[in-house]
Specification:
- The protein is mainly α.
- The protein folds into two domains: 2-206; 230-303.
- Helices cover 76% and strands 0% of the residues.
- The chain contains 13 helices and no strands.
- The protein has helices at 2-15, 27-47, 51-62, 74-100, 104-149, 151-159, 167-205, 213-229, 238-247, 249-253, 259-272, 279-286, 292-303.
- The longest helix is centred in the middle third of the chain and has 46 residues, at 104-149.
- The termini are far apart.
Length: 308
């Protein structure tokens, strides 16, 4: 079962995303390692409440085109699946960074993309693996047909006491053992590859929840927009709504328990009104870089009528 053992070894290297010698990596493997590194860096930035920096490094990577899915053999199929599932994860991380950074509309797009990436790759993976399984099944059928064609002789051989074996009997038994071993190896290989497909399908389930993630984000956007549309200080005016929130930030921030959630909400205000002069001061206040007095002055200056 040398071929299968070699395949298993290759897969273990790929699945672990840890390659002993960088110089021996294929472009697909190199890209997979790079994406894993970026995910780690982005996650650290998010934990440090720097979601927009996290999003920036992710988006830079997402702009780079992926190598085509390579279905040539088991090693390339496995490497391609690992790469594309990593890319799905990168889109998921982009959605999280977008949400934290206030770009809710982007988050919905990234959640949709993560599902498209993994589902497209899964279809190619299953198709390529089905061909590999078919090759092993053909091998199994050939060996089994030889055994079946020699059924009577095999029965007679097995019924014979080994002490009565002739040289020809020993050769026949050796051949039979080879055929039976080949059938068993093929059956084991088929089961292994079927298990790989099942594992890939299980992994893809994460990106295919019963209720698509983007739907929840879009509903959140719609709910917020409904509040903006009914804002008494200027129905439908996002900038005025944002300034109203900043002016009453103490009341609004009571809706958020943790400091990071308050900062994430403030990033949303900034996304809604990027030209605001008060939101950056509120953000600095929440990050410990500004004082209440500075925020009050900013709010007052924003209310002051423009000089003619």
């Amino acid at each position: 079962m040398k071929q299968l053992k070699q395949s298993l070894l290759a897969f273990s290297l790929i699945a672990g995303a840890s390659f002993a010698c960088i110089g021996q990596q294929t472009p697909i493997q190199e890209r997979t390692v790079k994406i894993g590194r970026i995910i780690g860096e982005a996650d650290k930035l998010r934990e440090e409440i720097n979601p927009r920096e996290a999003l920036a490094i992710i988006e830079e990577e997402l702009e780079t085109e992926l190598p085509p899915f390579d279905g040539a053999n088991f090693e390339t199929v496995s490497a391609s699946w690992t790469l594309y599932s990593s890319m799905a994860r990168l889109n998921f991380e982009a959605a999280r960074a977008s949400l934290d950074g206030g770009f809710w509309e982007k988050a919905a797009e990234f959640h949709k993309k993560e599902r498209e990436v993994v589902n497209g790759a899964l279809a190619k993976y299953k198709d390529a693996m089905a061909k590999i399984i078919q090759n092993w099944d053909n091998e199994r059928k050939v060996r089994q047909s030889i055994i079946d064609a020699n059924g009577e002789a095999i029965v007679a051989l097995k019924a014979k006491d080994e002490k009565d074996y002739t040289n020809e009997d020993y050769l026949s038994k050796e051949k039979l053992m080879e055929w039976e071993k080949a059938v068993k190896e093929a059956e084991d290989a088929i089961k292994y590859f079927e298990d790989r497909i099942a594992r890939a399908e299980k992994e893809a389930e994460f990106y295919n929840p019963p209720e698509p993630r983007e739907d929840a984000v879009l509903q959140h956007i719609a709910d917020q927009q409904a509040g903006i549309d009914t804002y008494r200080g200027g129905p439908g005016d996002k900038a005025k709504w944002v300034e109203g929130v900043v002016a009453n930030h103490v009341q609004y921030m009571q809706n958020f328990g943790e400091a990071k959630d308050k900062i994430h909400f403030t990033y949303r205000l900034l996304a809604l009104s990027p030209d605001s002069k008060t939101v950056p001061v509120l953000l600095n206040l929440l990050q410990g870089k500004a004082t209440d007095a500075e925020l009050r002055r900013a709010i007052q200056a924003n209310r002051a009528p423009a000089r003619r």
